[in-house]
Every structure is written in C-alpha cells, then in structure tokens.
Backbone:
C-alpha cells in the first residue's frame, strides 16, 4: 500500500472512531453539563479552572479523553453518575477549542 493510501485509511478510521464515541456517549445535555462541570470539576481544578476548560482541548481530544475515563487522573474521586458524566462530556465537547462556539471562559 502506498503511504498516502495508508494515511487516508488511518484518518478515516480515526474519524469513524471519534464519531462513534460521540454517538456512544449519547446526546448529553451541554447546558446541564456546564452546571455540573462548574459544580464538580472546579473544586479540583481551581476557581478559574484555568488548567481545565472546554477550550483547553479539541473535540477529538475530549472524545479520546472520555473514551477511557480510567486514564483521567481524578476519575477515581468522581461520585457522579454516567448520565451526568455524559452531560459534562457534551459541554466540554460542544465548546472545545475547535468547535463552532469555543468557550471564551468557564
């Protein structure tokens, strides 16, 4: 296989994976996710959450982050439901740095 064809196939596979993960996470409520993010995430990440905001990652990076939540450093401390995590993911994903409406501040 040529290098160009391999690159195209790899890109397509990554895109399909990202889209399938977005659908697998379900259509969460981004508005509720923003509330939950402020309530739950800022307690660890500071009042301004400057080290963690929707715009600190791209949509693909948020999808990859939530694909294996066990790799997130603070995930063992979470006491929120899967539904609430899905809402937080929707908020972070919908306002990521490369989204149509990136977050200006959280």
Residues:
């Amino acid at each position: 296989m040529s290098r160009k064809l391999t690159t195209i196939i790899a890109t397509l596979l990554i895109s399909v994976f990202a889209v399938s993960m977005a659908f697998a996470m379900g259509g969460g409520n981004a508005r509720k996710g923003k509330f939950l993010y402020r309530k739950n995430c800022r307690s660890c990440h500071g009042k301004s959450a400057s080290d963690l905001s929707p715009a600190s990652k791209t949509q693909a990076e948020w999808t990859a982050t939530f694909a294996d939540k066990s790799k997130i450093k603070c995930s063992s401390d979470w006491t929120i439901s899967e539904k609430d995590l899905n809402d937080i993911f929707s908020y972070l994903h919908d306002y990521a740095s490369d989204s149509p409406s990136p977050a200006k501040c959280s």
In short: Residues 56 and 97 are 6 Å apart (CA to CA). The radius of gyration is 15 Å.
